[in-house]
Every structure is written in structure tokens, then in C-alpha cells.
């Protein structure tokens, strides 16, 4: 279980997250929606310990991400996929995927490499295992990023706007992979602007507004009457997103 309690994050004089409470149970797909600057990506970065909290507490399977000795254990349980891939350019797809399992989990190299190739094959990249990032399309690089996260065998997958840098065709490639993972029961926290996709795969939708979590509802209720039953601000947001 991922649990955020009264989370606060401040950058300079700007409060980016304030009194955020969120629980993600094993097997759930929870999508975080909100306008730009609402704190969505910051919340993901707080969950994986990349940002230090200014208040409150976040635990991953009861490991406190604010405590250095517990952060490493928390990170072993959650894999993160970022919007800009963050692959090492001097490493092949297989090398990018196997680096952490070998160095952090102390997996035998041959075993880690075979698993990496199997993961790449599962996302349609079996023939690109030895390619460098510069030789891959954006959609292919993002699929490698997903494989890299899955290679750590995480209990939770954190996805931060993973399609925002992709064109529509590449976006569809990545969303198909995520839909498959959701159907297989992978626990995911998904920050996105892909509204209809969120509706299809999510168990719950949470909505952030100016750093505050203002709505946390089952997906069907969130989208009822275009969000009007959830919150007038949600209805406004959904209407604008669909027009765009």
C-alpha cells in the first residue's frame, strides 16, 4: 500500500502540495488528473523520494520515504517511468534495463539480460534489444523505460505523463502496453492528460487543484455527468480537455 498523509511541499514561496491525503491499494490503478501546475508530477516525485517533504508523511508498504534507511526499501517496491525517458544514451536497451537489477538487486548478469530481452519482446521490441536510444523512436524509448521499471519487479508502477512527449501514433503504442499491464493487475499511479484512456483503465480518479486533492472517486462516479456530480471544477476541466 502507498499512503500519503497530510503531504506538503513548498518551492520557495510557492506551496505546491498542501494537506494531500491519498491511499493506493495493491491491484488498483489510480489516475491523477489536474491542470498544469496543480502538483501532479510533484506528488509522484515525492512518492519515490526525489523530492523532500515539507510536511506530512508518505509510506510505501510502511517504509517511510523521508527516512534514508527506509527510502531504499521503498524504492525497491516502486518503479517510476518519466515523461522524457531518461535512458542512458551510451547504453543499449538491454544495458539500460539491466543496470539497476544487477547493481541494486545483485541479480546475475546472464539472468538479468535474459529477463530484459523477454520484457522487450513482450512490448514488441525483441529485435531492438541491442539498439542505442538514438536508434529508437520516441515510442520505442518509452517502452524501454517501462521495461526498465518492470525489471526491478516493483509492486507499484508510477507513471508521470509518459505520453506527453510523443506523437499520436507513438502515444497509442505506449497506452496499449499500459492497458495490458492494468489488465494483468499491475498497481499503477498514473499522471496523465489522456482523459479517455484514464476512464478505461482506472479504478479511481483523483483530481488536484492548486496543490490540494479536491476529488477522490471511483472512475464511474468521477465521470458522471461530465464530472458535475464530482465537482464543478472537474466538469470545467473535462470540458476544456475534450475541446482541446
Describe the structure in your own words.
With 244 residues, the chain is of the alpha/beta class. The chain is 39% helix and 25% strand. The protein has nine helices and ten strands. The protein has helices spanning 40-47, 68-77, 93-103, 109-122, 138-150, 168-183, 195-201, 219-222, 232-243; strands at residues 2-11, 14-24, 29-33, 55-60, 63-64, 78-81, 156-160, 187-191, 204-209, 212-218. The strands form two sheets. A six-stranded mixed beta sheet has the order 6-7-8-3-9-10, sandwiched between helices. Strands 2-1-4-5 form a four-stranded antiparallel beta sheet, with helices on one face. α3 crosses α4, α3 runs parallel beside α5 and α5 (138-150) runs parallel beside α6 (168-183). It is globular. InterPro entries: AAA+_ATPase, ABC_ATPase_HisP-typ, ABC_transporter-like_ATP-bd, ABC_transporter-like_CS, MetN_ABC_transporter-like, P-loop_NTPase. It holds the Pfam family ABC_tran.
**Unreliable spans:** none
Strand order of the largest sheet: 6-7-8-3-9-10
Order of helices and strands: EEEHEEHEHHHEHEHEEHH
Helix share bin: 25-40%
Amino acid at each position: 500500500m502507498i499512503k500519503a498523509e497530510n503531504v506538503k511541499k513548498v518551492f520557495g514561496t510557492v506551496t505546491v502540495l498542501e494537506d494531500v491525503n491519498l491511499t493506493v491499494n495493491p491491484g488498483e490503478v489510480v489516475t491523477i488528473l489536474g491542470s498544469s501546475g496543480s502538483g501532479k508530477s510533484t506528488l509522484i516525485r515525492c512518492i519515490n523520494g526525489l523530492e523532500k517533504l515539507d510536511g506530512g508523511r508518505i509510506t510505501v508498504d510502511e517504509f517511510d520515504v523521508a527516512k534514508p534507511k527506509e527510502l531504499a526499501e521503498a524504492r525497491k517496491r516502486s518503479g517510476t517511468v518519466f515523461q522524457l525517458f531518461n535512458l542512458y544514451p551510451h547504453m543499449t536497451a538491454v544495458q539500460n534495463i539491466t543496470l539497476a537489477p544487477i547493481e541494486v538487486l545483485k541479480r546475475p548478469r546472464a539472468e538479468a539480460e535474459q529477463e530484459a530481452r523477454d520484457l522487450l519482446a513482450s512490448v514488441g521490441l525483441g529485435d531492438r534489444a541491442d539498439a542505442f536510444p538514438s536508434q529508437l523512436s520516441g515510442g520505442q524509448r518509452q517502452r524501454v523505460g517501462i521495461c526498465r521499471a518492470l525489471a526491478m519487479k516493483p509492486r507499484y508502477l508510477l507513471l508521470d505523463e509518459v505520453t506527453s512527449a510523443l506523437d499520436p501514433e507513438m502515444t497509442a503504442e505506449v497506452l496499449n502496453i499500459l492497458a495490458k499491464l492494468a489488465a494483468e493487475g499491475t498497481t499503477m499511479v498514473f499522471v496523465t492528460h489522456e482523459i479517455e484512456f484514464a476512464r478505461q483503465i482506472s479504478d479511481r480518479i483523483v483530481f488536484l487543484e492548486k496543490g490540494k486533492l479536491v476529488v477522490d472517486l471511483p472512475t464511474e462516479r468521477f465521470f458522471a455527468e461530465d464530472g458535475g456530480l464530482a465537482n464543478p471544477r472537474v466538469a470545467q476541466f473535462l470540458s476544456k480537455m475534450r475541446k482541446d
